[in-house]
Amino acid sequence: MQRWNGWGDENIKLDPPPPALEILQNLAGSGQIWPDYPLAKFIGRIPPSRLTAHPLISFDARLRLDHAHGQSLPEWIGLRGGTLPRFPDGVARPANGAELRELLKFCAAQDVIVIPYGGGTSVVGQLAVPQTERPVLSLSLERLNRLVALETDNRLAVFEAGIRGPQLERSLNAKGFTLGHYPQSFEYSSLGGWVATRSSGQQSGHYGRIEDLFAGGEVLTPRGSMNLPPFPASAAGPDLRQLVLGSEGKMGVLTNVIVRISPLPERDHVYGVFFPAWEEGRNAVQHIAGTDIPFSLMRLSNPLETTTNLALAGNERQISLLRHYLGLRGIGDRNFCMCLIGFTGSRRTTTAARGAASSIIRHHKGIWIGKPMGRAWQKNRFRSAYLRNSLWDRGYAVDTLETALTWDKVTPAMQSIEKSIHEKLQAGNQSGHVFSHLSHVYPSGSSIYTTVIFPLAESPEQTLEIWQRIKHAASRAVVAAGGTISHQHGVGRDHRPYLAFEKGGLGISTLQEVFKHVDPDQRMNPDKLLP
Ligand SMILES: Cc1cc2nc3c(=O)[nH]c(=O)nc-3n(C[C@H](O)[C@H](O)[C@H](O)COP(=O)(O)OP(=O)(O)OC[C@H]3O[C@@H](n4cnc5c(N)ncnc54)[C@H](O)[C@@H]3O)c2cc1C
Question: Which of 101, 141, 185 has most ligand 1 atoms within 8 Å of its beta carbon, as the pocket-test mutant?
Fold first, then answer.
C-alpha cells in the first residue's frame, strides 16, 4: 500500500544507522519532531467540489487529497504539517482512449482545468493545484497501463502512457528486452511522466535519457490529436517530439508512447572506485567521459557525500576494513571521494570498457575496489529514497536540487551552490548537512546533484520559509554559475521563475505561443513551466 504522506510503500522502513545520524546531528543539529497531521482531519478539510457530476469523475475526498500533490519538499511540508492549500475538484481515471476523449470534451464544455497525473512523483510542483475560479480535474493515467505493441524487429514498443516502471520492464523483460530507464523513482513514476518531465535514468550513459528513448506516440491536445510517428531519423524540419518532451502536461495528454528498446544485456556491472580527493576524481570522470569508452553510469561523490554514504551503508566492520585498505594504498580518508562506474552490454564490450577505464582511473590515482560496492548500490538503488521518510520522523527535511554545466564550470558551481545554501541557513541561525555528486556525465560537462538536510523548524510555515530561502539562493547560484535550472527534475512551479535566464525572452514567448495554439483556453496545467 502506498504511503499517503511520504515516499513509497508504507511497509518499507529504512532507518539511518547510528553513525550516519551522528554525522547529521553534528552538522545540522537536532530537528523538531512534529506529530503528523492526521489523515482523517485532512479528509474533513477537503472543500465541496465545484465540478458538475460526470460518471467518469470521482469526488472522493481521499482520491482528491492523493492527487493534490507530487513529492516536492513544500508538498511534504504541506502534507505532514496539514497546510497543503488546494485540492483538485475531482479525479478521473479513464480506462481507455474513448473515456479519455470524453473527459477532455467534458472539460472543454464546462471550462475545467486539467492536470494530467502520471505517477505523482515529480519534485518541483508540477502537480500543484492552481488558485483559480475554474474547477480543476486531476486526470490520472493510472489505468492506461498496457503494452499495446511490441515490434522487436523495429526495436520499438508502444505503451499506454500511464504504465509505471516495474510493469513496463516486466513486460519487456519477458520478451528479452528492456527500456533501461531507471530513475530513482522507478517504482512509482510513469512513462508519460518521464517524457513530460524529460527524465533521466541512472544508466543513461548506456541507454540514453528519455529524450533518446522517446520515439513517438500520440498527444491529445485541446485542439485535437497530434501523432508523432517513430521515424528512425528525419530531416523534415523541427522535431515535434521536442515540444512534447518536458511539456509538463501543457501540450495535452500523452496517451500512447512509442519507445526504443534494447535486448537485455549480457552483463550489467557496477564497480566502486576511490580517489584521494575531488580534483583527481573529477579529472578522471571527465577524462573517461571524453573517450569512446561505453560506460552506463558514472557517479562521483564529493568528500562529504562519500563519508555520509559510507556511514549510511551501515556495516561498520566492512567500512573500517575499506578505510584501512585505502590507507595502505595511500589514500587518507579526509578528502577521499567515492565513484561508481557501470558497464552494460555484451561480455566482450564490457570487459574491454572496464580495462580501458581502469587504466585512466589509475592514471588519476584512483583505486579500483571492485564489484561488492557496486552490487550494494544496485540492490539499494531505489531504496535510499525511503530515508526521506525516516529522516523526517527524526525531525529533518530533505531536499535535492540539480543542474548541468560545461566541465570548466562544474567544480566552482558545486562549491557556490553548497555555499549559497549554507549562507542562507546560517543567516537564519540554522545549520544543515549539504553534499553533492556528479550524477550524469557527458563529454562536454556534467550534472551536479546536491542534497540538503536541515532541521524542521517549529511550524510548517517557518520550515517552508527556510526552504524558500534556500531554494531561491541555490537557484540563483545555479543561474549565476551558467547552469541549467534543471538537468532532470523539470520546471514545474518551483523552477519557473528561473527559466527565462536560459530560454531568453524570445524563447519564452515562442513557447507561450505554441502552448496557446494547441490550448487556446489555457486549460492544460496552466500555472506550470512558463513564467
Ligand atoms: C524519490 C524520487 C527520486 C527521483 N529520481 C529521479 C531520477 O532519478 N531521475 C529523474 O529524472 N527524476 C527523478 N525524480 C523525479 C520524478 O520521478 C520524475 O520527474 C518523473 O519523470 C515524474 O513522473 P511521474 O509519472 O511521477 O509524473 P507526475 O509527477 O505524475 O507528473 C509530472 C508532470 O508530467 C505531466 N504528465 C504526467 N503524465 C502525463 C501524460 N501522460 N501526458 C501529459 N503530461 C503528463 C504532469 O501533468 C506533470 O506536469 C525522482 C522523484 C522522487 C520522488
Answer: 185
